[in-house]
């Protein structure tokens, strides 16, 4: 090695390697994305991130990472020649060359440290950008068109979507980078160090045959045999690592549910059932861990044996040439090092088998998640047209997922100020009818016209309270406005005691009683002023006096609102002009409500 020209030579080497690498990498990615399942999965998940029409930055970052990876290979090559020079100087007891080598080392080491730090920063920054994009993309798909709700109806249900969005995305981006750059590093190192090894190795006589440059062939044969064994031993790890993720997520979900339903479980003293459910899920994890350990023992055992043999193997082969003074100590040490590098590079593919197994499992989980969302979006639903200040149902038929008829050919026409109470025995389909109207239920035929989602409010029996302040919960699903009148609304809903706590951040669904939560939901009606409101037993936890006051409050504040309620109590009758009775098996009856107090000022009943 001519150290005077090392800088120029290295720059030329890196430039050439960079151009060749970029061309080869692009071709390989295109071929994989076309012809392999996981290549297609990769494309489906993240092609758009790299599209230059969206942004040129990701490809530029990636090019920077390729450059730094090649830079690191070049540094290894330089270090290898440096060690040859050093050992040769020691062997010759040449102090002058030794001190020159020390100076060269300090330059190489400085460049190496700076490169390593820049490399770390660039890789991490790239991973963050990639993860942000992918997470936003998956969250958006999950929340669009109510996919998060509709996926429960598709055949390929997804377990633990939360884990897929949080953990699998992170694993996917970091493994993609680690594996792809690992491949590049290994292939380029393989070429560089095979070349060095070629220069250092001599002929070897075996079984009477003289093999020239034997060392190079031997290292390849050695690793090839080791790889064949490793693939056989390691294959089951792929399925096991998929199951590990699934079992862990299932266990975590069960734990989260105990926290979520803490009070109900505590009232029932349900600890025994919970304990056995948790133990059963945890035993799946443990069983899987043992299976992984037993497989890994064989796998790692093989890897350890292979890498230990590789330490002495090149020394044994070169020893006769060293002792017959054909090569220097420096050559001997560089051979060992180059052999190690070639062996490491080739072994990358073998050792990465485990990582690749995990990577494929992650891709299966992420694309399974997309499959489920796509299938959910294909599900049918009622035809909903948005029209202001009206609620019309035309020939609506609602069934259960098992095709049992709940409501058949229903027709309704409710103008402003109209009010309808839906009644029927438990399980007859009242809530499902409202789901159909909201567009959530796929097993529906017919047409619906109603105001758009901004002017339509559905209040379930148990209101959903988001994390955050009480003010946020009161405005949900709208964002908090300034000067919002929240205190006034709380007062009207007989929740004055909560006014001082409006901006307290707490888990309000655990603090407020169900009746208070239901009144908070009535507060939402007052704040968001919808044109139509659907109340599904939304006052069931209030006493009759409070319920009466709340219905009166809605009517007084929003005289024009179309009100559709589901309820069992006869006391609700006075607020509703019409009654829809569901009888099951699709049968229903629509008629005027007896005892309705607003009869005089109500509009004429639609026929
Ligand atoms: N996701 C689902 N998958 C399968 N069946 C369902 C699903 N949701 C509801 N059902 C079934 O549809 C039928 C109607 O349920 P729905 O909740 O609409 O009844 P409901 O009249 O509102 O009852 P309640 O008065 O008890 O609230 C029930 O038999 C129920 O078991």
UniProtKB/TrEMBL annotation:
An annotated GO cellular component: plasma membrane
Subcellular location: Cell membrane
Protein known as: Putative ATP-binding cassette transporter
Gene3D superfamilies attached to this UniProt entry: ABC transporter type 1, transmembrane domain, P-loop containing nucleotide triphosphate hydrolases
SMART domains documented for this protein: AAA
Membrane protein topology class: Multi-pass membrane protein
Entry GO MF terms: ABC-type transporter activity; ATP binding; ATP hydrolysis activity
């Amino acid at each position: 090695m001519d150290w005077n020209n090392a800088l120029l030579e290295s720059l030329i080497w890196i430039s050439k390697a960079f151009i060749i690498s970029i061309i080869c990498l692009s071709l390989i990615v295109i071929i994989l994305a076309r012809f392999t399942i996981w290549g297609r999965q990769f494309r489906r998940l993240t092609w758009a991130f790299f599209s230059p029409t969206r942004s040129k930055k990701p490809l530029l970052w990636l090019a920077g990472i390729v450059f730094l990876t090649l830079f690191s290979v070049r540094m290894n090559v330089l270090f290898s020649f440096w060690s040859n020079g050093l050992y040769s100087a020691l062997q010759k007891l040449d102090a002058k060359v030794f001190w020159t080598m020390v100076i060269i080392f300090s330059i190489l080491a400085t460049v190496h440290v700076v490169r390593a730090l820049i490399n770390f920063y660039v890789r991490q920054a790239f991973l963050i950008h990639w993860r942000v994009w992918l997470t936003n993309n998956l969250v958006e798909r999950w929340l669009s068109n109510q996919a998060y709700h509709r996926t429960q109806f598709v055949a390929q249900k997804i377990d633990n979507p939360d884990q897929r969005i949080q953990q699998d995305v992170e694993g996917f981006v970091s493994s993609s980078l680690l594996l792809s750059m690992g491949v590049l590093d290994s292939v380029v190192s393989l070429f560089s160090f095979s070349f060095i090894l070629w220069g250092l190795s001599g002929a070897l006589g075996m079984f009477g045959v003289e093999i020239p440059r034997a060392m190079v062939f031997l290292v390849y044969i050695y690793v090839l045999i080791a790889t064949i064994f490793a693939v056989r031993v390691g294959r089951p790890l792929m399925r096991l690592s998929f199951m590990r993720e699934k079992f862990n997520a299932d266990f975590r979900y069960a734990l989260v549910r105990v926290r979520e339903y803490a009070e109900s479980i505590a009232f029932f003293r349900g600890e025994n059932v919970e304990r056995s459910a948790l133990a059963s899920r945890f035993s799946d994890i443990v069983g899987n861990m043992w299976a992984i350990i037993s497989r890994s023992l064989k796998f790692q055992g093989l890897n350890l044996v292979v890498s230990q043999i590789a330490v002495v193997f090149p020394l044994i082969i070169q020893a006769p040439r060293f002792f017959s003074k054909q090569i220097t100590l420096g050559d001997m040490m560089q051979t060992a090092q180059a052999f190690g590098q070639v062996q490491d590079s080739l072994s990358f593919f073998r050792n990465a088998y485990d990582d690749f197994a995990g990577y494929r499992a992650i891709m299966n989980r992420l694309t399974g998640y997309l499959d489920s969302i796509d299938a959910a979006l294909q599900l049918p639903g009622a035809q909903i047209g948005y029209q202001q200040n009206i609620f019309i149902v035309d020939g609506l038929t609602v069934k259960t997922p098992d095709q049992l008829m709940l409501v058949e050919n229903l027709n309704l026409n409710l103008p402003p100020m109209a009010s309808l109470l839906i009644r029927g025995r438990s399980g007859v389909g009242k809530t499902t009818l409202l789901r159909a109207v909201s567009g959530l239920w796929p097993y529906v035929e017919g047409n619906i016209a109603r105001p758009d989602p901004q002017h339509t409010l559905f209040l379930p029996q148990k209101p959903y309270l988001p994390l955050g302040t009480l003010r946020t919960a009161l405005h949900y699903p709208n964002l908090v406005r300034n000067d919002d009148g929240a205190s006034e609304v709380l007062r009207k809903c007989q929740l004055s005691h909560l006014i001082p706590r409006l901006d307290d951040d707490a888990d309000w669904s655990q603090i407020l009683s169900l009746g208070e939560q239901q009144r908070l939901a009535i507060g939402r009606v007052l704040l968001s002023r919808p044109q139509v409101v659907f109340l599904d037993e939304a006052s069931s936890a209030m006493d009759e006096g409070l319920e009466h006051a709340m219905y009166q409050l809605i009517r007084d504040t929003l005289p024009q609102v179309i009100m559709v309620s589901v309820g069992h109590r006869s006391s609700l009758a006075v607020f509703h002009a019409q009654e829809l009775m569901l009888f099951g098996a699709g049968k229903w009856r629509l008629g005027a409500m007896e005892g309705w107090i607003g009869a005089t000022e109500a509009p004429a009943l639609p026929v």
